[in-house]
């Protein structure tokens, strides 16, 4: 029996596929791509390993058709990371590999850039000597150019002879020149510091020293720095050390579109190629960025979630900025993974330090600090004169409120504007109003596909569903009784309108997903605030992402109460993080900031603890609550979710799945229950929750249970997925 290749294919089957090496040529290395026959298809797969034999009878084993990579696209560490992710998330390894590689590579594109080259043939040299092209001066000129080096790249020809393509075609037709392809060797990339950074304060220097001392071995660090304390400068100094040692760094950020400033700071600081990977790239741009990383040309790779799989030769440091951010968790599609958690695993495999930075670290990370697994580095001073903002609760029950803004908040805005400050008004809801109500019969505009109301978008004259994207014209009258309708509640659009009426002549900017539709929109809004042209910024969550407005002195949080009474055990954590992050926008410059938080529940223990003791006090209280209730990080969760055309269908599969799990040891099954918003986009959603005090118990159980669940007949009637360590519970 010859050696058998074990190949991962992008199929939902939980296994590898056996193939024989190619009939001709050297066998592929582990981590290389191969093209293989699969039924009637030809698929691109990844060689994950080799074996001495196969369970398949020899006559059924087929050879691979083509080896696509002389140099594997995944090194040993990358293969190990894929295998780890497949095992931990209980997901087919072929689909995990599909997440790790850009689409172009999955379709067989070369892993290294190739350049078009043109060369002179012997007949061409003869033609030049006899001046056979004297009647075609452009062909003669091109022959002359090719004769200089006998081979020239398309780029070089373009620089010497404009419109060279037509004569080149003519030379080829006459047999005087040939076109070919060369593997483009990346130019060696230097890494120099362009502009030295500012002097570090003591805490920053200590953080840099602590991680710097761990370079060359694994260590997990939580860089817990209040907003404005200069976390980015710590990353920059560490990357500087890494580059000086000849290494490379991987920086993960929540969303590139929301953090152009971070990429900008790396570009300003370092004179070295940087590969940037995010969801806004075209397939081709993604391939180019991947190649820059793979070839080692890029010394720094900055990317969002899936960049945790990016190839980084001589990886020496991983940074996860804003590690608490929910966007690091992929909670849709095939593989549901946490890029933050995978970053820690990757750092461990690679033997390099990982830095998890945040002003509001996740409770999981703080728990890991308490357990001694992670080291916390604190930055508690704001850089350069800036004072921490003063937080105040504004009791909505005792204040006059107009259009969602309490009178004391209006007065504060007026005062700060008069003192030449800028103001941020935060409301985590876009659109004009969340509800359209008939004042005659009480009809409320519903989404036909979801258990949700349609949001009023006044400017666009539309009613839109924020869950399924349904879009309808805004009716002037009630479709049931014909009476007048009215918008109830507030969104960013309406707050902007109310502020414009209250402060005529004051320029107002808005930042939400309706405003930011394409590249550059965000920068335009940020630019208006940075230049001082806009005095008030109204925005959603988007405003919390790392923007620095030195003149911003007041932040008003309009609807803090959302999240105080949610059924999701993580809602308080998210609320506290949002409040602290939004508040952190105030007083980044020399002037102290003020933060007003409107609430109808100012005595809520979470809010009072947060205001009295800051995020630390809140986190401690929240962790104690989680410990008592046995929620993560004191327990491990997995959610088996599904959706179907009917509520009964969605529950039926989960009921059968639960029945398969006869009295598991150390694992509790909760449900199945319909989702809080059961109907979304016309489908009914339900969930079965699995919980265990011990991670290994949960995973052992899943190992045995899932293959059986997969075989259920009802599994084929629904769309189902398993989410290990789910962030959102519904
Ligand atoms: Zn009506
Ligand atoms: Zn909908």
Give a quick set of tags describing it:
GIY-YIG endonuclease; alpha/beta; 24% strand; seven-stranded parallel β-sheet; 20 helices; binds zinc ion; six-stranded parallel β-sheet; Rossmann fold; 730 residues; 5 domains
Q: Which hetero compounds are present in the coordinates?
A: zinc ion
Largest sheet: 7 strands, parallel
CA-based gyration radius: 30 Å
Helix coverage percent: 25-40%
Under CATH at level 1, the class of the largest domain stands as Alpha Beta
Trace the largest sheet across and list its strands: 13-14-11-15-16-10-17
Find the CATH superfamily of the largest domain. Answer: P-loop containing nucleotide triphosphate hydrolases
Examine the coordinates and then state which fold CATH places here, giving the name of the CATH topology of the largest domain. Rossmann fold
Mass-distribution shape: globular
Q: What share of the residues does DSSP label as strand, in percent?
A: 15-25%
Beta strand count? 34
């Amino acid at each position: 029996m010859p050696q058998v290749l074990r190949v991962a294919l992008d199929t939902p089957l939980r296994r590898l596929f056996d193939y024989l090496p190619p009939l001709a040529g050297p066998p592929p290395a582990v981590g290389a791509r191969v093209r293989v026959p699969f039924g009637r298809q030809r698929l691109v797969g990844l060689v994950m390993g080799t074996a001495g034999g196969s369970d398949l009878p020899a006559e059924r084993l087929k050879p691979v058709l083509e080896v696509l990579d002389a140099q594997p696209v995944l090194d040993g560490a990358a293969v190990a990371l894929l295998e780890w992710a497949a095992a931990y998330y209980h997901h087919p390894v072929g689909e995990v590999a599909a997440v790790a590689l850009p689409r172009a590579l999955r379709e067989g594109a070369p892993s290294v850039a190739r350049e078009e080259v043109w060369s002179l043939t012997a007949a061409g040299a003869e033609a030049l000597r006899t001046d056979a092209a004297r009647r075609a001066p452009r062909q003669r000129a091109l022959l002359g150019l090719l004769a200089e080096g006998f081979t020239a790249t398309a780029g070089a020809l373009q620089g010497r002879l404009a419109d060279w393509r037509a004569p080149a075609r003519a030379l080829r037709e006459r047999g005087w020149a040939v076109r070919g392809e060369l593997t483009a060797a990346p130019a060696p990339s230097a890494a120099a510091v362009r502009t030295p950074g500012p002097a570090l304060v003591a805490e920053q220097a200590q953080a840099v020293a602590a991680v710097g001392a761990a370079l060359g071995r694994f260590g997990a660090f939580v860089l817990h720095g209040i907003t404005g304390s200069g976390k980015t400068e710590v990353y920059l100094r560490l990357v500087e050390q890494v580059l000086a040692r000849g290494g490379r760094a991987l920086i993960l950020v929540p969303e590139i579109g929301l953090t152009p400033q971070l990429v900008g700071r790396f570009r300003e600081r370092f004179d070295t190629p940087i590969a940037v990977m995010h969801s806004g790239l075209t397939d081709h741009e993604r391939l180019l960025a991947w190649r820059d990383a793979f070839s080692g040309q890029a010394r720094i790779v900055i990317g969002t979630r899936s960049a945790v799989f990016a190839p980084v030769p001589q990886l020496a440091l991983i940074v996860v900025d804003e590690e608490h951010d929910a966007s690091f968790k992929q909670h849709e599609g095939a593989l549901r993974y946490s890029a933050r958690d995978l970053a820690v695993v990757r750092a461990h495999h690679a033997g390099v330090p990982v830095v998890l930075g945040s002003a509001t670290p996740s409770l999981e990370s703080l728990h890991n600090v308490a357990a001694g697994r992670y080291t916390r580095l604190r930055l508690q001073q704001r850089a350069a004169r800036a004072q921490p903002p003063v937080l105040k609760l504004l009791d909505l029950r005792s204040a006059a409120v107009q259009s969602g803004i309490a009178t004391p908040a209006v007065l504060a805005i007026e005062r700060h504007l008069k003192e030449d400050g800028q103001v941020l008004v935060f409301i985590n809801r876009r659109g004009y109003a969340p509800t359209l109500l008939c004042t005659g019969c009480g009809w409320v505009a519903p989404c036909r596909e979801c258990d949700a109301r349609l949001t009023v978008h006044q400017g666009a004259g539309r009613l839109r569903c924020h869950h399924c994207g349904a879009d309808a014209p805004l009716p002037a009258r009630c479709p049931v009784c014909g009476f007048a309708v009215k918008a109830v509640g507030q969104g960013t659009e309406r707050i902007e309108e109310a502020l414009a009426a209250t402060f005529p002549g004051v320029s107002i900017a808005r930042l939400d997903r309706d405003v930011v539709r394409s590249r550059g929109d965000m920068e335009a809004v940020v630019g208006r605030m940075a230049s001082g042209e806009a005095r008030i910024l109204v925005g959603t969550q988007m405003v919390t992402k790392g923007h620095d407005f030195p003149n911003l002195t007041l932040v008003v949080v309009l609807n803090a109460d959302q999240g105080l009474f949610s059924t999701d055990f993580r809602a308080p954590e998210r609320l506290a993080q949002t409040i602290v992050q939004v508040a952190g926008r105030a007083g980044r410059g020399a002037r102290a900031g003020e933060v007003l938080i409107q609430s109808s529940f100012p005595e809520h223990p979470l809010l009072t603890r947060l205001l009295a003791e800051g995020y630390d006090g809140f986190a401690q209280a929240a962790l104690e609550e989680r410990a008592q209730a046995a929620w993560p990080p004191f327990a491990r969760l997995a959610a088996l979710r599904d959706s179907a055309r009917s509520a009964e269908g969605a529950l039926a599969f989960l009921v059968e799945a639960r029945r398969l799990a006869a009295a598991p040891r150390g694992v509790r099954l909760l449900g199945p229950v319909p989702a809080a918003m059961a109907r979304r986009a016309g489908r009914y959603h339900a969930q079965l929750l699995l919980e265990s005090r011990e991670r290994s118990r949960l995973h052992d159980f899943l190992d045995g249970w899932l293959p059986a669940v997969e075989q259920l007949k009802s599994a084929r009637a629904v769309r189902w997925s398993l989410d290990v360590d789910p962030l959102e519970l519904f």
